[in-house]
Amino acid sequence: MKALIITYYWPPAGGSGVQRWLKFVKYLQEFGITPVVYTVKNPEYAIEDATLQSEIPEGVVVIRQPIWEPYTWANFFLKKRSAQTKAGFLSKKPSLLGKLVTYIRANCFIPDARVFWVKPSISYLQKYLKENPVDVVITTGPPHSMHLIGLGLKEKMNLKWMADFRDPWTAIDYFHHLPFTEKSKQKHHALEREVLERSDAVLVVGKTMQQDYLKYNAKAHVISNGFDTEISRNDQVLDRTFSITHIGMMNEDRNPMILWKVLSELRNEIAGFFNDLEIKLVGKVAPAVLDTIVSEGLGTKLQHIDYLPHKKVLHFQQKSQVLLLSVNKVPSAKGIVTGKIFEYIIAKRPILAIGPEGGDLAEIIKQTNSGTIISFEDYQKLKEEITEMYANYLKGDLSVKSRDVNRYHRKEITKQLAQLIKDI
Fold this sequence. Notes:
Number of helices: 16
Mean pLDDT: 91
CATH architecture of the largest domain: 3-Layer(aba) Sandwich
Strand content: 15-25%
Helix content: 25-40%
Shape: globular
Number of strands: 13
Largest sheet: 7 strands, parallel
CATH class of the largest domain: Alpha Beta
């Protein structure tokens, strides 16, 4: 069988968006599926990681076509890197120009700024697929414009089509922040519904999203993210400090203010705590988050590293005393399953998660016995948990006994995906 995978994020793209399908492509051939990748030739990637190029299997066909993106124009006028114009970093105090750009982005480019790639891609792929037929087309979003390419090919060629949602569309964490007109909001919902209803199968990363999408497509399947790295325990050297490490983007919605308050209070209550403490934030962090940490008197304990290649990130995870996972405090919080959770699990360091105790993430942490999740407002429980962690750190006994983690290996998950592709 042959599958055409339509994705915006592909090496040299860095960050979490590229990992899911890069790993699926890595293993699909072992299960009888030949992948062909269709992606952009001249993208506006916020983050690049050239080391990921080496993970593309030899012989995989990668088709690249040019794209025009309005982000180039926006970044020129804002004089900022594209990472700062992404929705995750919407400022709560934007400039007048920033407000204008955000308004245009929300209402003129639906579903997103890659919409100008849709028609040229449908035209190109119609010709390509007549000469190079495939058994299934798979689109992955965000950006959800990729799904409109799949929808167009479905209408014109009646191909089998799977729509993969790495994140939800209208339920994504920043959707409620964008200044939509009522007409624009209705158009988003209508397009999302059309994609869900017309696709032959829908892939999602968690059970909450699956339940939401089953209303529109009975063939909505959970294919989770996972890990693809085996970490040797023989040469592990933990940080000598009481390190609390967060990997990945931390925007204002993800700012765990309750944690900074607890840490600030404990420095005055436990002798030696402040001296031992180290806060490590690896990845893009909103200025408001850094300001909160400083305002709580923790600035001297902060190490912020803007971005690291994926392989170096794994090293940081492995040696940290505690791995911090902060869920966005938004209406859709229960359905958020950040991809980093699986690499946190395989690092075998205690996970301290702040988020909804009844959400998809909490279920994974409980199932694997990999750490603790504490609700957004449970100050006392968080304080008790950190106090216990610090006591175990002092005894040299801060560890975790995880279990049942192999089910989240990328190869095992790809095996599940391959079966769905064969059954479509």
